[in-house]
Amino acid sequence: MAGTRRLKLEEQGIEMEVAVFGAGEPVLLLHGFPLRGEMWLPALEHLPQGFSYIVPDLRGHGQSAATDECTISDFADDLAALLELLDERRRIVVVGLSMGGYVALEFTRQYEACVRGLVLVDTRAEPDSQEAAKARLETAERVLREGTAVVANAMLEKLFAPEAPAPLRDYWKRIMLDTTPRGAAAALRAMASRPDSFPVLKSMTVPSLIVVGEKDVITPPDCALRMHEAAAQSELVILPGVGHMAPVESPRPFADALRRFLSRLPSKSS
Ligand code: MLT
Description:
Helix content is 44%, strand content 19%.
């Protein structure tokens, strides 16, 4: 992607790739599993100027290095280190889709003083149930044995609304297959052990926007509604006819919702 940089996170011992678009108030865009920062490009075309959009590949995804093990908390720490390396000290709007949403919630739990607004897209605040966590850990083992196709094949049918065009599905299947088994397995384990994030939503004092595709079957609108009810200063937007990849399937309406949220934020980030 244009404007891409590769940065070494010394404490974490990994290199991360990040692209920065535009200049102005910072907005951090966090992709889902097992995808990469590129998933924000369709929406970026419609997002307003006057912001600096920071788009990392999360650990083990895209061009960022993988580790055998990591937690959602590690993903959040990676981002704090990344922002420091970018010399970004202003309060930031954090936007996360699905797994990116789990990371955005964890970042808010740990670094709320750095957060200006939170945007949760096609995600949930609940942790995995015991059965879901067990299934994920089993999938992680299979991915290491058989490759990332195990998750790419399982997720493909669920990612998009039924009406999404075949070329879009094919393209994102290829992206999923590009994720290394090591990176995918570590992320699966991280998601399996993630904590309940409702306490974050209930206690945080920053405004939030919750966006969900009407036809999202991975994190359905019920999940979004529960987050909206928990977060005092939240707005809920349900995008019609769209699945789990709302910013990819419906970039303009997604960008419109984000633009409205950004324009209503109370104060500058510094
Ligand atoms: C994602 O889209 O990031 C994943 O489906 C999230 C999950 O599996 O919980």
